[in-house]
Specification:
By secondary structure, the chain is mainly alpha-helical. The protein has helices at 3-28, 46-74, 92-97, 107-117, 121-136, 139-147, 155-162, 168-182, 189-214.
């Protein structure tokens, strides 16, 4: 091999490494940009395809229900309820036990869902809380569910690990990074949960390090 050829090979290899490093840096950079949302695999022929189509429709309807529940909750503001301590008002213990995102929602909204859907009061509270979190805190997840990129089994991870993040920018970045990672992959709920735990732990560690740097 000539010296010129060896130099050319070295340059090409170095350039490839630099390009790869740049891609990794860009991928690691926090972003709220969502990927193209689509099912990870095409529909199969025959009965399996029918199963896939039904599963995607369940996901789409789950998203539609969440939007409808959130819209219903918006028509039932807590300002219309009796104040704490008045006769007929919700007990302080029950009020304190409600999820925080239900505080602006009338106490009677859940009872209407109980009657309308034949579910328990606790199930109605869960449905309200989950729907509000999906619509207002996890819009990317809701869009992915509608598009078939995620299925209802993935929602627990997003609601449990991502929705509680207080900072809206950090929450949107974590949500988007998880959706980009899952895009085009066959991802089981447990795999998404593992990825979310690692990602949230990494972000928490970075935040702690920044707080230490700013400490006097």
């Amino acid at each position: 091999m000539t010296t010129e050829a060896a130099t050319g090979d070295w340059y090409a290899a170095a350039r490839r490494r630099a390009v790869a490093a740049g891609r990794r840096r860009r991928a690691a950079k926090a972003s709220t940009e969502l990927p193209e949302l689509a099912p990870p695999v095409a529909l199969s022929d025959g009965p399996l395809g029918a199963v896939q189509a039904a599963d995607r429709e369940i996901g789409r309807q789950t998203a539609l229900r969440a939007r409808a529940v959130a819209e219903f909750a918006a028509t039932r503001p807590a300002t219309a309820d009796r104040a704490q301590g008045e006769p007929g008002a919700m007990s302080p213990e029950r009020w304190a036990a409600r999820p925080e995102n239900l505080r602006p929602v009338s106490e009677w909204a859940a009872r209407e869902l109980v009657v309308g859907l034949s579910i328990s009061a606790s199930a109605a509270d869960v449905m309200l809380s989950r729907s509000l979190n999906l619509v207002y805190r996890l819009p990317g997840t809701l869009a992915a569910l509608e598009a078939g990129a995620l299925h209802p089994g993935h929602l627990w991870t997003m609601l449990d690990k991502v929705a509680p993040i207080d900072d809206p920018i950090v929450r949107a970045e974590v949500e988007a990074e998880l959706l980009r990672w899952a895009a085009g992959r066959i991802v089981a709920p447990a795999q998404l949960a593992d990825k979310a735990r690692r990602l949230v732990a990494t972000r928490d560690a970075r935040s702690a390090a920044r707080r230490l740097e700013k400490a006097p």
